[in-house]
Each structure stands twice: as structure tokens, then as C-alpha cells.
């Protein structure tokens, strides 16, 4: 998979390193000469250019990219890169970094963003996830379909503890994608049973989040 990353700062380089380790082809683009540190990520391609300029993106051959990541520290730049990647080059997947949570509402499909990652919001969500049992925590927002990646730790008193995944009547527009049980990461099947303490990750429509939380947190009669 070919991935272009706009922004070669600490965030962009870290993402590049992870992707390269997973066998992907990575291009880092930055307009600041001081950001071009080839020795830090030598396996990547590097391009000194302004990612907001069509001529630069032509040089980057963005049309050959499977994914574009707008990872600069400027929300305006990330929005422009996202819009150009989607509308001018038809990039299938566009991921954008949100630096200021007040700008989150802009990072949607109208600006070409498929996935918006807000570092401040993600950090606060991870704090909530670490201390919350029985409360739904929103980890990530997907622009298409108004869906979110959400997490809930199944409480001891949940009526669903001991129930097989296939026997649960999940709300519409929700999908259980992962069960984290201790150190194990499970891809759920219909025969898997839910256990108290399981961390459950769902992709769910925002309108269904309250319904999902109510379902998973229901107390048994008499408890």
C-alpha cells in the first residue's frame, strides 16, 4: 500500500516509521527544509514541497496513493490537503489530524476527510477508558456514515455477561469488531461468550450509542 503523509514533523515521522515496519510504501511531504530529515526515516521517500499546491501533489503522484494522511500542525493545511486528495486525485482513504478540538466539526466528508483524529480528544478518551466500567467511551470518529469507534468495559452486573455474541440483539447500525480480554485480542464469533471485564470495541452510528450503552449496562433483576 502506498501512503503519502503531509507533514514531516514528529507526528508524521512516527506514523511513517510504523507504516514502513508493516511493509507499506511511504512518502513524506513537507515545505520546510528543516523538516526534511532523511536520516531519521531513511526507508521513506521524501519530497520538499507545499502539500497545498496542486503542482506539488502532481509531483507526489497522489493519484497512486491508497491513503493520504494530513498530519501537519495546522488544521487549515490539513483540511486543504484532505480536500485536494479526495476531489482532485480520488484517494480512497483520507485521514486528517485535528489539532484544535474546536475545529473538529469541519473535518468531515465535505472536506474529503474519511477519518478525523483529534489528539486532545483521543487522550481524554483514553483516560476515560482506563477508569470507566459500564460507560461508553468514544475513541474515534469516522466521517462517512456518521459512525464512531466506541469502547465499553462490560461491568460485573451486566445482564449480557455469559451470553454468546450471536444471541445478543445488537442495535441497528452497530458492529462488535473486537473483544479485548486481559492480554488477548479476540475477533468475535457468534459462539464466543461475553465475560465481565471484557473491553468491547464497536463501530456504531452516533444515534445508536445511547441504546448500545443501555444494552451493555443493564443490571440483572435483583442486583
TrEMBL record:
<protein>
    <recommendedName>
        <fullName>Trk system potassium uptake protein TrkA</fullName>
    </recommendedName>
</protein>
<dbReference type="InterPro" id="IPR036291">
    <property type="entry name" value="NAD(P)-bd_dom_sf"/>
</dbReference>
<keyword id="KW-0520">NAD</keyword>
<dbReference type="GO" id="GO:0005886">
    <property type="term" value="C:plasma membrane"/>
</dbReference>
<dbReference type="GO" id="GO:0015079">
    <property type="term" value="F:potassium ion transmembrane transporter activity"/>
</dbReference>
<dbReference type="InterPro" id="IPR050721">
    <property type="entry name" value="Trk_Ktr_HKT_K-transport"/>
</dbReference>
<feature type="domain" description="RCK C-terminal">
    <location>
        <begin position="137"/>
        <end position="218"/>
    </location>
</feature>
<dbReference type="InterPro" id="IPR003148">
    <property type="entry name" value="RCK_N"/>
</dbReference>
<dbReference type="InterPro" id="IPR006037">
    <property type="entry name" value="RCK_C"/>
</dbReference>
<keyword id="KW-0813">Transport</keyword>
<dbReference type="Pfam" id="PF02254">
    <property type="entry name" value="TrkA_N"/>
</dbReference>
<dbReference type="InterPro" id="IPR006036">
    <property type="entry name" value="K_uptake_TrkA"/>
</dbReference>
<keyword id="KW-0630">Potassium</keyword>
<feature type="domain" description="RCK N-terminal">
    <location>
        <begin position="1"/>
        <end position="117"/>
    </location>
</feature>
<keyword id="KW-0633">Potassium transport</keyword>
<keyword id="KW-0406">Ion transport</keyword>
<dbReference type="Pfam" id="PF02080">
    <property type="entry name" value="TrkA_C"/>
</dbReference>
<dbReference type="InterPro" id="IPR036721">
    <property type="entry name" value="RCK_C_sf"/>
</dbReference>
